């Protein structure tokens, strides 16, 4: 008989989404789940992705197994894209994964297998799935607070590294931090890289939103700088947001290693982990991304579409902060303008977030996170007024 698990943790965000769907108020705003939405509330498939899908369908390629590493062109394309034309790319070995989550899980298991004593140092508030993924791989977690009055607490991150033991891991989000929107300037990535070298700490970088903060190259620059400084590092790449491929479960685990022998070993371990879990990752999303990245025209089109997504998000953030600061001189608002990406973290308590839901039909996460991309431009002023009303009550 199956035993019951007393502390079963279902995803709380899906419960809130269901509550929103059942809300009959026409002006309800679902700002819970982290997907990009256009002005009409649609989570679109980019044109470049649609075009790639048409091309792939028209050549009716085989559905034969790909390889233990998945789609090799996809792995190479993603690695070139995120690491750039550099020595890092030469030192990297990659494996296609089942979404960014799957990449995180593969890398977490790699870390656990190769160092059972390791602790992962995790800044909180963290992405809701980080703790479950790391724990499922059997890793120990040490949390530290990353925020200070709405801004990144750089000293806290440095302290976390200095307090770590050699072989420990620092988990960082590459850009557009979920749920806080906090970003790390390149100089801080560089500083941390030197601290990590001194402490023997390995970076595990989760990149799910590159291109949605300050620009594609800008959002990748910090990670690249750190990886140039440290001997080895691991990157979990998600194709979900950047190519709109959420349900295709497309991602990539990238390991930048110090020499080819270690690269071959680590790659082999990743293949063994994947084989024991699901054998090979699903093919479609990776083929699409490989097609987009491998064709100059599609690639340029995708870049333009990514820019449009970013501009929409940036415009919404600016509009909301403008609305808040025009009506209120509370000290919390200016920090919101410094955040980047799809998420904005409101300085509101869980009770105030509940008021936002009950009184204003605005559904965000109790921690204060809202998905900016879920806001139609015409609703920005209403949202600002609703936030002010629950904040000042
Ligand atoms: N990391 C972060 C920070 C995320 O927000 C997400 C998606 N919500 C992921 C990883 C995983 O993305 P995927 O859907 O590709 O598994």
From TrEMBL:
Cofactor field: pyridoxal 5'-phosphate
Keywords, comma-separated and alphabetical: Aminotransferase, Pyridoxal phosphate, Transferase
Domain of life: Bacteria
Oligomeric and partner information: Homodimer.
Aminotransferase class I/classII large domain location: 29-387
Tagged with keyword Magnesium: no
Family membership noted in the UniProt record: Belongs to the class-I pyridoxal-phosphate-dependent aminotransferase family.
Record bears the keyword Nucleotide-binding: no
PANTHER family cross-referenced by the UniProt entry: ASPARTATE AMINOTRANSFERASE, ASPARTATE AMINOTRANSFERASE, MITOCHONDRIAL
InterPro entries: Aminotransferase_I/II_large (IPR004839), Asp_trans (IPR000796), PyrdxlP-dep_Trfase (IPR015424), PyrdxlP-dep_Trfase_major (IPR015421), PyrdxlP-dep_Trfase_small (IPR015422)
Pfam family name, one: Aminotran_1_2
Record's protein name: Aromatic amino acid transaminase
């Amino acid at each position: 008989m199956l035993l019951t698990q007393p502390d079963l943790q279902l995803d709380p965000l899906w419960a809130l989404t269901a509550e929103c769907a059942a809300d009959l108020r026409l002006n309800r705003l679902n700002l819970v789940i982290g997907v990009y939405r256009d002005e009409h509330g649609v989570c679109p498939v980019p044109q470049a992705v649609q075009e790639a899908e048409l091309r792939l369908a028209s050549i009716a390629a085989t559905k034969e197994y790909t390889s233990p590493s998945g789609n090799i062109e996809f792995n190479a394309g993603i690695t070139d894209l995120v690491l750039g034309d550099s020595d890092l790319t030469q030192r990297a070995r990659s494996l296609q994964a089942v979404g960014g989550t799957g990449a995180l899980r593969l890398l977490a298991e790699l870390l656990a297998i190769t160092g059972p004593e390791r602790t992962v140092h995790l800044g909180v508030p963290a992405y809701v799935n980080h703790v479950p993924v790391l724990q499922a791989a059997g890793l120990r977690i040490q949390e530290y607070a990353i925020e200070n009055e709405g801004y990144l607490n750089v000293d806290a991150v440095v302290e976390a590294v200095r307090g770590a033991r050699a072989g420990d891991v620092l988990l960082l989000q590459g850009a557009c931090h979920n749920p806080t929107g906090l970003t790390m300037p390149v100089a801080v990535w560089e500083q941390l890289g030197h601290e990590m070298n001194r402490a023997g700490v390995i970076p595990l970088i989760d990149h799910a939103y590159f291109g949605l903060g300050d620009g594609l190259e800008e959002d990748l620059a910090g990670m690249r700088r750190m990886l140039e400084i440290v001997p080895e590092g691991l990157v979990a790449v998600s194709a979900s947001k950047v190519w709109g491929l959420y349900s295709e479960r497309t991602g990539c685990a990238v390991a930048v290693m110090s020499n080819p022998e270690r690269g071959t070993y680590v790659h082999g371990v990743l293949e063994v982990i994947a084989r024991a879990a699901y054998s090979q990752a699903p093919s479609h999303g990776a083929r699409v991304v490989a097609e987009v990245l491998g064709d100059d025209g599609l690639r340029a089109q995708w870049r333009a579409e990514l820019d449009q997504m970013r501009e929409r998000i940036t415009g919404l953030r600016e509009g909301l902060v403008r609305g808040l600061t025009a009506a209120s001189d509370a000290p919390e608002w200016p920090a919101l303008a410094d955040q980047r990406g799809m998420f904005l973290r409101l300085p509101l308590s869980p009770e105030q977030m509940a008021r936002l839901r009950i009184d204003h039909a605005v559904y965000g996460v109790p921690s204060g996170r809202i998905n900016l991309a879920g806001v139609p431009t015409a609703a920005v002023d209403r949202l600002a007024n609703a936030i002010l009303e629950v904040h000042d009550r």
